[in-house]
Amino acid sequence: MTVVERLLVVGSASVHTWRYLAGIAPHAKEVYLASNGEPPPELTPANLLGVCKLDFSLKAFGSAAKLAGFVDAVEPQLAHVHQANSVAWHAFRALKNRAIPSVLTAWGSDVLLLPKQNALMRRMVSANLAAASALTADSFHLAAQMRELAPNASSIDIVYFGIDALPVEPAPGRPKKVLSCRLHKSLYRIDKIIAAWAAIEAQPQFKDWQLTIAASGPETDALRAQAARLKLRRVDFAGFVSPQKLAELYAESRVFVSVPESDATSVSLLEAMGHGCLPLLSNLPANGEWVLDGVNGRIVPDIANLPSALAESLEWASCDAKLAEAAAINRRLVETRALNSANVARYAALYKKLLSRTA
């Protein structure tokens, strides 16, 4: 159902932006995009009628004026900005003094980490949050941090970046595999996973288990070197994979491990839970909104305990019945809270509410 005639989406070149664009497009008659990239053909909606290519870096002082010209040309009824970082800084300068309602969706590190860098970044993020007509977050913890940064900002809705559909129910007897698929950046601590895996390979009872490390990033070469230095024999670096291949990796894995230093609700966690993997996660507030330690996954209280937590997770997931019990809980959580269709509909309802105020 169409709720907005002309929608402007502002966001960085990311699969999350592209998936949101494709999901929300049926709720708009015309869609326009401002980004530092363009979506792939399979995620480009038919009603995407214009793209404004922008540099979102803080030094790109001309980006706001360029976007303002684009806004004046296409006359959007509503703007949806993704990330409260420099993307929002450029967007809200472009929207200033224009009677266009706006939604700002925080993603995680833009609110949880960026304001901690220095006072200037904190003021920028706070101002971005205060400038929006409505705010959304994908975890209660993230919403609380947003409110702390901008006490007088608009109301905050909890809406998730969900998954397209609940995967087929996993069959028993899956291979004994562990999957890591977060980016190879220091934030995600893939090196700690590799170090923990070295302890696993040293234990005979886990001789049938393998670790798959998907994705890539600036630390890929160092991570490969670490695995070679530790003489690991059962680690497969899969590299950057397509969504279809990633779904296959989830389906053939029993344990999903993700231990970043900071995170909101991770789409990869939702995908893993939907595929019936047992999650092994770092002790972050957003993770605690999905996983109760010992019930439907494991939470590592201290990264130093990752080797023992990984061993305990492998023992748990070795039993088909125990794995199926946790998988059933996780799949119900995803089905009730994290499917794209329901969450996109919530965004559309938010658009409708904002537009009704300006009618």
UniProtKB/TrEMBL annotation:
InterPro entries assigned: Glyco_trans_4-like_N
Entry-linked Pfam families: Glyco_trans_1_4, Glyco_trans_4_2
GO molecular function, one term: glycosyltransferase activity
Record has Ion transport as a keyword: no
The keyword Transferase appears for this protein: yes
CDD domains from the UniProt entry: GT4_PimA-like
Tree of life domain: Bacteria
GO biological process: lipopolysaccharide biosynthetic process
Domain Glycosyltransferase subfamily 4-like N-terminal, chain residue ranges per copy: 7-139
Keywords (A to Z) from UniProt: Transferase
Transmembrane segment boundaries: none
Designated name of the protein: Glycosyltransferase
